[in-house]
Amino acid sequence: MPVLNKDDLRELDREFTKYQYIADDKAVVWARIMHPWKPSDNNVGGGRSTGISKPEEEIALKLDDNPQWQRLELREQHCKAAIERMDDEQYNIYKLRYRAGNYYDWNTVGKLLHYSHAQIYRKRYALLALLAQECGMLSKDETKTGSSIMD
What we know:
Strand content: under 5%
Low-confidence stretches: 143-151
Number of strands: 0
Helix content: 55-70%
Structural class: mainly alpha
Shape: elongated
Radius of gyration: 21 Å
Order of helices and strands: HHHHHHH
């Protein structure tokens, strides 16, 4: 029965944090893929292109071949799926921790929601376990309490 250790929890926490900026990250990668740097061309007259232009296919192939784009897509899929599986209480914790304008650490989130230190870390474990399940670190049919894992 696998259990998430402190390093796993820290990495899953980072994944949710990075997810908040996924649209910006994808826009930057997309711009780099679509508009790569090319040295200047002194051939003003140019030449004739021999290829047939299919811009949609070309874009799809470029994105499929880029490992950075693929990592961002995978992160987005995993985080979205985990968020969809959250109950209302977990989603409120998620919003406070990751989407609030202020940076709230786990202890602050616990104080704001009137949870003890142990309670908020059990809830943290359950919330991050959803993402771990989506990432394949834990199987989806296992239920984890995480009461033995405290940061």
